[in-house]
Fold Chemotaxis protein CheY.
Amino acid sequence: MSKHILVADDDLHIREVISFALEKADMRVTLAEDGRQVLAQAREHCFDLIVLDINMPEYDGLEVCKELRKTSDVPILFLSSRDDEIDRIIGLEIGGDDYVTKPFSPRELVARINTILKRLQPPNKSTSTEIIMHYGDLVMRPEQYYVSWQQQAINLTATEYAIVLFMLKQPNRVFSRELIMQHAFTTPIYISDRTIDSHIRHIRLKFAQVGCNAIIETVHGVGYKLKLNF
């Protein structure tokens, strides 16, 4: 089944360019020209990914992302006409999965979208058996993009899921922020330590909502590790 992508930008030409590139890559596209339309479309449809321009009328992209993250973990790729580090950091901190600056190559944009979607796609069942990973009350099923604590399912964004899965593979190891960055963001993008800290904070909050108040431990001056006794 083809992936359904919502493309939101107030520039008609950019919408058309992105739509053409995605449809050529066998993806289904829905278009929006402002933030209000994005929120309306997101309520009516289940999208596989949203391409979200930061500088839009009727709620900008950052405001839209914050609103979406209240109820949805849909992957979000930000677009911006400004190569502004603050926009990039804020966008990733509030739940974005990638950030592309205009002008951009449509081919690169499609490649980045495919990279994000690939992280969420289960392996081919005919060539693999289901892998279930346990760590105390934490359970992850990568093929189903599933994570739970004490049998309570937790909704994580693609980036948050990648961080927890990476740490679960070596649960006794302390991971530096740089190492977490390398595995959580698979495309070449500059992010700060503060961005990783923000994602860790979001992960902790989501686990706390199901009663797990200590999932990731801070090792001061070094980085993070999964907490042994939780």
Q: What stands out?
A: The first strand starts at residue 4 and ends at 8. The chain has eight helices and twelve strands. The two ends are 39 Å apart (CA to CA). The domain at 126-226 is CATH 1.10.10.10 (Arc Repressor Mutant, subunit A).
